[in-house]
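note to self: dont lose this again. the chain is below, predicted strucutre after it. 556 aa total, dont forget to put it in the shared folder this time
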Amino acid sequence: MKQPLSEYPRPQFYRDSYVSLNGVWEYKISENSEIPQSFDGEIIVPFSPESPLSGVNKTLQPNEFLFYKKVFKLDEEFVLDKVILHFLAVDQIAEVYLNGHFLGKHIGGFLPFEFEIKEYLEEENTLIVKVQDLSDTSYHSRGKQRLKHGGIWYTPQSGIWLPVWLESVRYKYIEKVKFTPDIDKEEIIINVTANVDEAIIHIFGIDRPIACNKDNHIKVKNMHLWTPEDPYLYFVRISIDEYDEVSSYFAMRKFSVIEDSKGYKRLALNNKPIFMKGVLDQGYYHEGLLTPPDYDAYIKDIELAKSLGFNTIRKHIKIEIPRWYFECDKRGMIVWQDFVNGGTDYKISTITFPLIFGIHHSDHNYKAFGRISEEGRKEAIEEFKQTVEYLYNSPCIALWTIFNEGWGQFDAKEVYPIIAALDKTRIYDHASGWHDQGISDTKSLHVYFKKVKLPKNKGRAIIVSEFGGLVLPIEGHQIKGNSVYTKFKDAESYLQAYKKMMERDVVANIDKGLAATIYTQLTDVEEETNGFITYDREVLKVDPQKIKEINDKIII
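---
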């Protein structure tokens, strides 16, 4: 089998030093927490054992441990002053050992972590990863995974589910780069984190010195602004003498909220109103679950959304490989990025009844929102911060969704300013759907099974961050289950219903203050069959041009 997802995963911080550790590893599932002497068989990394592409097809239980083993050698010329082992995501609690040495522990299944390993390297190296996944029995972040899955909750997955790789650097090296565009001042602010005082940046076709570990304000002459129609990217190289060089890119663009002539708040791109007509994308694949089978799968999904006439994707309760954001950056696809939810048991009165009765609660009631654990709340805030830092440089991201439908929501009035202080370049939705606390840039609605009715609210931009969910099941391409959404028998009746809904709920409401919409959803996911394409990506249910013609009427 070809080494899966072996291409360099991080286009926005690229260096030549790269060894992929994806591919065949050994694995063992055991209730014994001790590192085993023997293993059960082979697993294909980075696919979770629950996924078909892993070759395992077993579900890890909360009382079990999943062990990985990888034996590898490194060429002498690869090993420089530091060797860094990268994990893009391991679900949910990982302990890592190299040649018998404990490297460290990481908690949280959706964010990257790394270790410096040179001092432990040998001629032949044995890497052991020990994983425990408590899934929805704990307060840790889990997204939409649930052990008793069904409906809107999906198959749990565990272990290594995003790429693992090595890079090697000299003792003088670039740790990270931060880009902050300011189109009003016609400048790009660049901050290079490194263990030296100065680097060289190749920008706008010339080399120039740049101070490290501080903001550098560089004028951008004749700015070429990034838009969905013209997604222009500025590519740069940053180097430290002969020691290190990384390639990256940025875009000149601005996302904000402005007021129109009627007093309505509008979402804006580059100081101009834009209607962000979006589609929900949960990033699930029938063979790999949360892991795409290859990077072409990313491109096909993004291109599908564009062909349907959408200019925005809401990345729902998932953080992707950096390459996904790069594909959106260069294709002009705006992204609304959700934070990943955690917390313990979700009460139906908190997460479902508001859809029917429109009741909003104070999120200081930790018991009602499954957030009794103080440690869990602190962990969530740290993960929110890490998410912003991790994805900060992606030009495509326009909006952060902090909480969704009360899933583990807590203290939004306190959490929102903490996150907003980290990133002043984007829009915020503090409570997507319900349990609005009267803060942030948007008043966010979820509307299913009824006509969209806008609240009288001119203080914030009104967005419908989920709606629709029309179902066209395709025999032979669906997982049998209970779908609560409105079903249609054929493509023509589905298309007519979509057209009527868009004209009534979207087009007719723009002049009344509606600023953006997110349609549910791009693809089917397990039992949910409300996508434009089936879960296996084999059947496109409708003519995309006909959907695009409807969506093209949505303008501001």
